[in-house]
Structure formats: C-alpha cells, structure tokens
Design a protein that fits this description.
- Helix content is about 20%, strand content about 35%.
- The protein is α+β, with helices and mostly antiparallel strands and about 110 residues long.
- A five-stranded mixed beta sheet has the order 1-5-4-3-2.
- β4 and β5 (about 60-75) form a beta hairpin.
C-alpha cells in the first residue's frame, strides 16, 4: 500500500509471533497510520487465525505502535487473508460496523 517506512517493532510484537501484513499511512495526515498484523496464520497455535489492527504514529522520523484498535478472529487462515486484502478498500462505515460486531454492507 505504501512505500517503505521505518517502524519500531516492540518486543511483545515479536514474542506474540505477530506478522505485519500491511501498513497504511493516512493520506490526510502522514504522521498517523494503521498496521494490519496477522496471528496464527500458519495454524501452529491453538487459537483461531486473528487479524489485529494497531494505530501507529510518527515520532522522531520513525513510526511506533501506540495502541491496538481491534482484533478479528476467523475460522481459517484463508478467510483472514481475504479480510486483510479487503481491509484497505473498506469504507469507514463497514469498518465501524465490523468493530461493533454488526454485518457490514459488503460480504466478507
């Protein structure tokens, strides 16, 4: 989605075996963005594949993860990957509905 950025990855991110799938920097404010991270896409843990969204902010020419925004669990890694592919193009309304466990306008 974006050209390369400098992102400080915290220890807990690596320890939790999270993987960065996509980074999206705001088109209107280059100092804020979102990291889309995947967990258990390889099915090595006993939990469902999970997509986690984290807010990032530009601090001293590097982005840092500032907080987790939400997490979405899926039955299969394929469903999680499809969700990740659609996420950057999702409308704000669809995302808010998903975050509140409502059915989005489009079909996941």
């Amino acid at each position: 989605m974006n050209s390369q950025i400098q992102l400080i990855v915290p220890k807990w991110f690596v320890q939790d075996e999270l993987h960065i799938i996509e980074t999206i920097v705001s088109k209107t404010s280059a100092d804020t963005g979102i990291v889309i991270a995947g967990e258990n896409f390889d099915a090595t843990k006993r939990c469902h594949p999970t997509v986690r969204l984290y807010m990032i902010q530009l601090l001293d020419d590097q982005y840092e993860i500032t907080k987790e925004l939400d997490a979405f669990q899926f039955d299969t890694a394929e469903e999680a990957k499809q969700f990740c592919a659609k996420l950057p193009e999702m409308t704000a309304i669809d995302l808010v509905m998903l975050m509140n466990k409502e059915e989005p306008v489009f079909s996941i």
